[in-house]
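Database export, one record per block. Field names are fixed; values are copied verbatim from the stored entry.
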Amino acid sequence: MDALDVLLDGFDTSKHDPKEVEDFLITKLQCKDSYDAYFSSQPLPGSVVEDIAEIEAQISKLERELRSTLVESKEAISNVLCNEPVEPQLASMLAQIDQLWELENQEPARSTQDQYQDLFTSLEEPVEEPVDEPQEAEIDEFHAALEKLKSHASADNSSLNNNHNNLALVLTNWRSINELLELPTLTATCIKTGHYQEALLCHSHIRSLAEKFPTANIIRHIADSISHEITTTMLHGLVKMLQQNISANPMKKILMYLLSIPPFSNNPQVLIQVFMSMRHKFVCAEMDSFQITEMSNDTMRELLIKRKIEAFREHVYNALAIIKSQSEQFDLKTHESPKISIPLLQEPKKPAATNPLTLLFVETCCDALLSSLKPYKTSLSVSVCLQLVYCSFRLADCNPNYHHLFVNKISEAELFSTAELTTAMDKRRELANKYY
């Protein structure tokens, strides 16, 4: 059975010319080049479905155009909405309140000023309870809120007009007020992310505003919040950073930040004490990191001892150099340091101006170093003595009294004799004259 028989489905074609029937079917079946339309859900041309689809497409296009126009003009629309007068809105609110209370005496529409006066008069008048109707046992939240509104209006009736004006003023300057309220959060974020300079700028800005507007409670509250964040979180974080292994430039920046924060801003000498204390802890921790164990042989023991001395020399000298370079910020030039004379191995020396705080710092660091070397004084070589003397001469670049103190401490600890120390110092001077 061919396809033609299936299409005819038993139709008797004997009475018709088979050739004409076949031509007719071929013409009808092959009238289109493509048969995609047979499997498409598109509406027929000119039908209601097609009209609905076209209308919906036009509506969607208009909505997109409207959305684009609104987005492009959002600032103008916002300004129009924000700059609208407050009085019409208040009049609308009063009209709605009148409808909710269902006033018995309906009067013709009056001016906004008359409505304000009637509202204030009605709020001031006592509420008369009905005689015939029983009082409700419970009052819903809406009426309770209205009772509070009445009491507030009665208490502040004289300044109500000023409050309306203040509300309009707040709405007009809302963007600036919002930026001001975000200052505490911005300051905390700057501190957490390490932007300390920006945090100090926020602190300085709010302090200037507090001095300019001393009666503004909100500004005083924001200033107190930012000051608390600066003097607690930021101050503690910066002080802890002084105990870490950081180079000279970051350490100078930290000191400059701390000098801008109370109480260091009023008394820089206190910051010197804190700085020396934190660096002393760091120097001791660095020297203790080179721990000498029982398994260490003589070569390893001497190497670790020299590492301790080198750590002492590097970090103590850096701390002293930073204090000397920041003497103007620390107000050291205003307070002249006393002249102190420290003999060198019982030999008198000329007095030199020395800060007692830095001298105490050098002394405590020397004691920590020498106490760690005492258990191994029997195995200390001449090379170790020469390195100690070299370290002492390095401290002399900041102040000769540091050098005298260090050498005297070595002699008092009996690590080396006076003759050995004198020989090592002569060797150091010989090397300095040869290479420098």
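Remark 1: The two ends are 117 Å apart (CA to CA).
Remark 2: Residues 298-325 form the longest helix (28 residues).
End of record.
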